[in-house]
Design brief:
The protein has 14 helices and ten strands. The protein is α/β, with parallel strands linked by helices and 347 residues long. A six-stranded parallel sheet has the order 1-8-5-4-2-3, sandwiched between helices. Strands 6-7 form a two-stranded antiparallel sheet. The relative contact order is 0.10. It binds nicotinamide-adenine-dinucleotide and zinc ion.
Length: 347
């Protein structure tokens, strides 16, 4: 895989002009969803480097991360005269960069693409690391490939139009990056208050660097990339349970998953209790709690068993021995998980 270039832009026009110039191409396409078409495309549409770019629009949100949308992108590329030497710019959140990355990676066996993530979650997580794909057969990210964007350009200008819930959703992944990185990074994130969630370039840079470093070590998730799953085994279970009731944003489920998995980290791998408590109170303050009862435990544990990362019959977790001390391929008994869920509800 080609190494991935992540640019924390100070001047979007200049960054994009350069990124496009670096890829020799015949035709240029820009993929947006119905929301980023209105809110984000105007920011770049006037740039000289975007003149002549053919626009492709898909429906917004994960509901549209489907085979139908993918086929629509392929058709538009075909009808727009795309060749193997065409270039696509994905301008949107994680849905657009995942689906657009997959469309580009498969059209004529692969054309080059550039990601311009426009949500906090896609800036610090989805747009970096080469995972692309769509949902299929009721399962998230069921079909896709690993393939890097030629460049990823992050610009905080796009965050101005985001609502607070979506900012918080992305912030949960940043918190995860802080936890797997180092104490200073973690502490900085915890000092943020609701009014100061407007994320600065330096914060973005630090967060995305954690993901890049880990992905570079293990691009296809054979080992250490599992560090990025911290909070996600329990988090995905909360997310799926919520889907059966009232859907929640991914980052909220991850934040709740972090509560469960940090508690288990204390029990299983000696994570310091005070740091767990500090993190948990931050999460409680900003993300609240999904209302569950002990009657939900069997379903939640069943959902954890269905997690893609599991091998055999045990549930695979990533825990921490301390901040930055990553322990992959851990497991816990049902009793321990129930105790952690008790803590989640009451602790
Ligand atoms: N590839 C990976 O490694 C990876 C990692 C994490 C998440 N993901 C994927 O990312 C997706 C979630 O990302 P997301 O939260 O960005 O989802 P999203 O792309 O669905 O964006 C959420 C909503 O925000 C809107 N939006 C986008 N930019 C905006 C802006 N600047 N201002 C206002 N609204 C804006 C979108 O139109 C959408 O309605 C999921 O599909 C998930 O599977 C992928
Ligand atoms: Zn996540």
């Amino acid at each position: 895989m080609e190494p991935q270039k992540v640019i924390i832009s100070e001047d979007l026009q200049q960054s994009l002009t350069q990124a496009i110039a670096e890829v020799e191409h015949d035709r240029l396409f820009v993929l947006v969803d119905e929301t980023t078409e209105k809110l984000c495309l105007p920011v770049v549409a006037e740039f000289a480097c975007m003149q002549g770019a053919q626009k492709i629009v898909i429906g917004a949100t994960d509901q549209h991360k489907t085979l139908e949308s993918l086929a629509h992108v392929w058709s538009e590329l075909q009808q727009g005269g795309a060749t193997r030497h065409s270039l696509m710019v994905n301008l949107g959140g994680g849905m657009v960069t995942d689906l657009g990355g997959f469309a580009a990676s498969t059209f004529k066996r692969g054309i080059a693409y550039i990601n311009i993530p426009t949500t906090l979650l896609s800036m610090v997580d989805a747009s970096v690391g080469g995972k692309t794909g769509i949902n299929f057969g009721g399962l998230k990210n069921e079909v896709g490939v690993f393939n890097n964007a030629r460049s990823v350009i992050l610009d905080t200008i796009f965050l101005q139009t985001m609502d607070e819930e979506n900012i918080l959703s992305g912030y949960a992944e940043m918190l995860k990056h802080g936890l797997i990185d180092c104490e200073q990074h973690w502490a900085e994130l915890l000092t943020a208050h609701r009014s100061t969630f407007n994320v600065h370039r330096s914060t973005l840079k630090k967060s995305v660097a954690v993901k890049q470093r880990i992905v570079l070590e293990d691009p296809t998730e054979q080992g250490i990339r599992k560090a990025l799953n911290l909070g996600h085994t329990a988090g995905h279970a909360f997310e799926s349970l919520a889907l059966e009731r009232k859907p929640v944003l991914h980052g909220y489920a991850v934040a709740w998953g972090l509560v469960v998995e940090l508690y288990l980290s204390c029990v299983k791998t000696g994570f310091p209790t005070d740091k767990m408590r500090q993190t948990v109170s931050f999460i409680r303050e900003h993300y609240g709690r999904m209302a569950i009862t002990c009657d939900d435990y069997p379903r939640l544990i069943e959902l954890m068993h269905h997690d893609k990362k599991n091998v055999g019959t045990t549930i695979n977790f990533t825990f921490l021995g301390n901040i930055g001390d990553i322990r992959i391929n851990q497991t816990a008994t049902e009793e321990e998980i129930k105790e952690a869920l008790d803590f989640y509800r009451e602790g």
